Amino acid sequence: MVWMSRVVYRKYGNFVDNLRLYVKGGSGGMGLPRLGGQGGKGGDVWVVTKEAVTLKKVKDKHPQKRILAGAGVNSSVRALKGDKGEDQLIFAPPGIVVTSDDQKVLGELNGVGEKVLVARGGHGGTFHTGYLPSRGQARHIRLDLKLIADVGLVGFPNAGKSSLLTKLSHAKPHIASYPFTTLRPELGKIVYPDYRQISMADLPGLIEGAHVNKGMGHKFLKHVERTRQLVFVVDVCGFQLSPKTPFRSAFETVQLLIKELELYNEELLSKPALLVVNKMDLTDTELKLKELLGQLQDPEGFYHTLPKDMVPRHSVTFKDVLPVSAATGLGVEELKTCIRHTLEQEAAMESKELCRERLNSTNRH
Length: 365
Fold this sequence. Notes:
With 365 residues, the chain is of the alpha/beta class. 23% of the residues lie in helices and 22% in strands.
């Protein structure tokens, strides 16, 4: 029997993986005809990658989504050659693609400190232009976080993520019965009867303390940022990393996963997310599932059972909770359907938002 339960928590923040901005280079400065003075060049607009920056922070810094460089200084008797206008720098996270509105790729920025010119400043007035300056370049650009997959499987070691990826897709990851099987993202594709394909990544195993870079901490969490949707995978029977670490129930495991993501970057908690309760083929799992669903209906009512440092400050939004068995295939088809449905919902919302932005920008200009 396959259970499906909808558990919706309070949504916090908004994870941003793409952003559309209006950029304009500064106009050049006026020349001075009677003395042959040359106006200053207008400032340029650059996108520069920087650590500890997210696209949401870029959006918050520029709420109007308009970045204008400074105008060049006019030529004068005191300064025949006018100074250049002030450049504007848009700081963005590494791993982005910068494109124009007509889909032309302006640059791919992968490392910290890389930059690309997105709006050139106008030329200052000179003898050859009748001392009249030119306007700066103006256009809309898009900043897109490079994704490694549409869906990322998130869970502690031995939750069954690799086995689930094998059932869902054509991937053949190395699978074993000990922790840390997955040392790099394993990629697969879910292929539907109408030939629609959705990419999925089994992300390297997370452990407690990943936010402070324990285990593969930061590598794992950086991969999480590069997926559109998260699928949390927990063992219905609970989890214990080693004899020296405490046993965690399924409910505790969910809260720990949320806490690790929150401590690294709380924006991740607003990504679309599903919760998969795996290993439903084992004995007495129906009772354990019922207990977990009851706890998830009112998680705050059970926070007193958790250590204080394990209680998340914010909750994640689970679109659905789906019990499955990667070993027998129980619930896998329902999970495939649910993954596609939630991705298509998000895509429709993004499309509406983009159309609204374009309409507003057309009205302004």
